[in-house]
Amino acid sequence: MPRITTVIFDMYETLVQNPHGTGKSSFAKIIEQQGLNTTVDELWDHWLPAEEEFQITRVDPDLPFQSYFNAWKGGFELSFSDLKLVGDSQAATHQFFRDVSQRDPYPETDDAVAEVQKRWRTAILSNADDGFLLPNLELLQVGFDTVLTSEQAKVYKPRPELFQMMLAQLGVAPEETAYVGDRQLEDVMGAVQAGMHPVWINRNNKPVDPDLPAPSHQISSLLELPKLLANGLATQT
Predict the structure, then answer these.
(1) What is the pLDDT of residue 1?
(2) Which one of 30, 144, 188, 224 has the fewest CB atoms closer than 10 angstroms to its CB?
């Protein structure tokens, strides 16, 4: 069994709640603040394709790095243009950032992470901009040894360079590191490619994608993590 010294966490939908569609509440504020003649669903539906394209293109090593702020701002610019609205995309993105930075942790997050920290070092590695992740971390009762965002590294998960940069900052070997995240592509595959031990937190019992690396360790709550680690990441059946 591996000797784990360090546990690295993803942030959103792992420690902090951010389900799909949560951003619509921000869009309602933006419409009201800017007096836009549209609906939340209409603005969301015109903004979402740019976000989905960003999710795909951001891992292309041949394309220049784009932050969340610039990607989301570009989405608002396209949405306002398509809907023939006179809107302020910069202000809209700042509002979106403020709201994302206030996402609530899962009820078990603080207790589970505090329990892990009794025996293991902990860190955060997340696809995120500092502008929303760092203030969001302040809502947690626990701290972390190291925090690395995609904005700092100028690269996104699942590209292994991001994980390798995290390992270098921590000064640990991949085989002594567990990576906990909610996505099979970004988190499980990324960790596997970097030689880490992935732990997939699958709260909603999503089926395993057969085209991606299968997680050898799977939990439905962070409260299960300390026991899993204490057992040395014994292979699950």
Answers:
(1) 62
(2) 224
Other C-beta atoms lying within 10 Å of the C-beta of residue 90: 12
Q: Residues 20, 183: contact at Cβ < 8 Å?
A: no
Instruction: Give CA angle at 167 (164, 170), nearest 5°.
Output: 155
> Quick one: tokens of 39?
């609906």
Q: What is the mean pLDDT of residues 203-223?
A: 95
What is the rounded distance in angstroms from the CA atom of residue 91 to the CA atom of residue 17? 24
Please give the Cα distance from 87 to 97 (Å, whole number). Answer: 17
Question: CATH classification of 24-100, choosing from 1.10.10, 3.30.310, 1.20.58, 1.10.150?
Answer: 1.10.150
Spatial contact of 199 and 215, defined as CB atoms under 8 Å apart: yes
The mean pLDDT of 48-53, rounded to a whole number, is: 96
Contact call for residues 16 and 105 (beta carbons, < 8 A): yes
pLDDT in tens, 119-129: 999 999 999 99
The CA distances from residue 223 to 14, 88, 128, 138, in Å, are 12, 43, 24, 21
Contact 216, 198 (CB under 8 A): yes
pTM check: above 0.70: yes
Class of domain 6-17+105-230: alpha beta
